[in-house]
Design goal:
single chain, globular, 77% helix, mainly alpha, HupE / UreJ protein, 9 helices
């Protein structure tokens, strides 16, 4: 495949319209909640990266990071539903993608406590976006249940990916490559 054939696809992939979250598919609670984290590359990349990092750190971090993310995402979601959204939340979400990529690139060279704190901070912003974008006619509990379940499944996917990477790539080059891709993806969000 030639590079010139990839350019149109990359432009579509990284365009703001491809990253926006219009019409989450469902117009009611649970379905919309499930689909919200799956409809934006920004959410997908961060939530899967959290799982990968959790697997890389292992031990308690394997569950502490994802569960901390979910707990603080719920807090952010409540803030978003109530209208208390920090201006520029999408900028912070884009920055979270960059930082998650850098954390993957650096792997476990940073203490798991600092990584967990960053993960929790990012979760608040992702939760705010989820809450602020809740469809008007949705029941909050059903909507929140949907996006929490979807996020949990994305974290599990990341843990599975991270475990596979550890099993098949002892050198850590694959994790660094994943981190570089995620960081560049976040950089493209900042430029759009």
């Amino acid at each position: 495949m030639k590079i010139k054939n990839l350019i149109p696809g990359l432009l579509v992939l990284f365009s703001p319209l491809a990253l926006a979250h219009p019409g989450h598919g469902g117009d009611h609670g649970f379905e919309s909640g499930i689909l919200h984290p799956l409809t934006g590359v920004d959410h997908l990349s961060v939530m899967i990266s959290v799982g990968i990092l959790a697997a890389l750190f292992g031990g308690r971090s394997r569950w502490q990071m994802p569960l901390s993310f979910i707990a603080l995402m719920i807090v952010g979601g409540i803030l978003g539903v109530s209208g208390l959204v920090i201006p520029g939340v999408e900028l912070y979400i884009a920055l979270s993608v960059v930082v998650m990529g850098l954390l993957l690139w650096r792997s476990v060279q940073i203490s798991h406590q600092w990584v967990t704190v960053l993960v929790m901070a990012f979760a608040v912003f992702h939760g705010m976006a989820h809450g602020a974008e809740m469809p008007f006619n949705s029941h909050a509990l059903a909507y929140f249940s949907g996006f929490v379940l979807s996020t949990f499944l994305l974290h599990l996917s990341g843990i599975a990916i991270g475990s596979a990477v550890l099993r098949f790539s002892a050198s850590g080059r694959l994790v660094k490559a994943l981190g570089a891709v995620v960081a560049m993806l976040g950089g493209s969000f900042l430029l759009s």
